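Lab meeting, item 3. Inverse folding demo.
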């Protein structure tokens, strides 16, 4: 009886081991098949791009961005100018397809997957949410990104040289310390600044993590309100205005920039100066801006895209950092608030 039991147990264990072995084998085959598919798709895509550069056929590019605004226009124009530098001209040998997520992050994956399964040769993304989406959703096309605060925080890779093999691009981290310098000179005795941001945006989370340390070291209190949509910006400023602040700061947060008019109204109603990272938004209202030139960053990314179109492999192109500082101060905004503009800023004054 004992031998019979041992034999039965051994047979059961043998069948179990064989089952586990077969599952492991099939899993390995599927994994290798997926890797081979990615490599084949990447090689085919690169081959098509090289052929395009050699034959002069129409190259098709997709530009995906968060929402239409002046800043996005600067980014798009920079990308196209960068491609022009590689000999690709819209209407001649370059077809540009544009798509925006209408300010909703939930729309980004579907847009990217649509282009990834289309006949475009390369996908170019603008803003961190679109880059983050590309990192997880794009499987077949090369990607070049721009107008992004911190590509590593967005999931592009571990470092500028150790990044996802199918993408490259340009990051531009804002000069947070210099922004606080400007605030303290425009508002002497500055004690507290109010800021609203969307914590779901990796760029905003990273910028705020840096800002907290800088503001704390300077002895300036940073009051924060989290927002989930652009329609919450006005209410966020109203909440901040009740916390004894002396200025409102709109960082490079896509959600906040989308609802920038709400920030302008809230700050104006409270008699508070409004400072932003996005100089392209200053014509919409506010006192001043200090940030990164979006056009310069996009131009550099467009040149990278041109290299990819001509056959360069994105895995061989390190992520770049282009952060050309730009500043502007509204003369009318300062007059309305009774703020005296320091002489050192006069060259940056606008009407």
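The presenter then showed the designed sequence:
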């Amino acid at each position: 009886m004992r031998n019979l039991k041992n034999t039965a147990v051994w047979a059961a264990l043998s069948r179990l081991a064989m089952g586990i072995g077969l599952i492991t084998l099939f899993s390995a085959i599927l994994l290798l098949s997926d890797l081979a598919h990615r490599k084949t798709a990447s090689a085919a895509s690169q081959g098509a791009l090289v052929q395009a550069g050699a034959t002069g056929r129409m190259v098709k590019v997709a530009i995906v961005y968060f929402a239409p605004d002046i800043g996005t226009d600067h980014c798009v124009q920079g990308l196209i100018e960068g491609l022009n530098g590689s000999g690709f001209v819209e209407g001649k040998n370059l077809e540009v397809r544009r798509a925006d997520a209408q300010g909703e992050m939930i729309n980004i994956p579907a847009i990217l997957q649509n282009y990834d399964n289309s006949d475009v040769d390369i996908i170019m993304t603008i803003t961190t949410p679109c880059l983050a989406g590309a990192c997880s959703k794009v499987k077949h096309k090369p990607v070049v990104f721009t107008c992004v605060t911190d590509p590593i925080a967005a999931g592009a890779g571990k470092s500028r040289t150790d990044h996802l093999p199918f993408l490259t691009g340009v990051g531009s981290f804002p000069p947070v310390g210099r922004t606080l310098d400007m605030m303290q000179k425009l508002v002497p005795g500055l004690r507290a600044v109010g800021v609203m941001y969307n914590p779901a945006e990796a760029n905003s989370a990273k910028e705020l993590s840096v800002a907290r340390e800088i503001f704390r070291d300077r002895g300036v209190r940073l009051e924060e309100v989290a927002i989930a949509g652009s329609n919450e910006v006005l209410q966020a400023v109203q909440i901040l205005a009740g916390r004894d602040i002396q200025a409102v700061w709109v960082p490079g947060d896509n959600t906040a920039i989308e609802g920038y008019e709400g920030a302008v109204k809230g700050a104006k109603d409270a008699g508070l100066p409004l400072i932003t990272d996005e100089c392209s938004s200053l014509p919409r209202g506010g006192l001043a801006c200090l940030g990164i030139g979006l056009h310069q960053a996009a131009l550099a990314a467009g040149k990278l895209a041109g290299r990819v179109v001509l056959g360069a492999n994105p895995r061989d192109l390190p992520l770049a950092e282009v952060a050309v500082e730009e500043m502007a101060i509204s003369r009318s905004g300062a007059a309305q608030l009774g703020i005296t503009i320091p002489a050192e800023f006069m060259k940056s004054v606008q009407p």
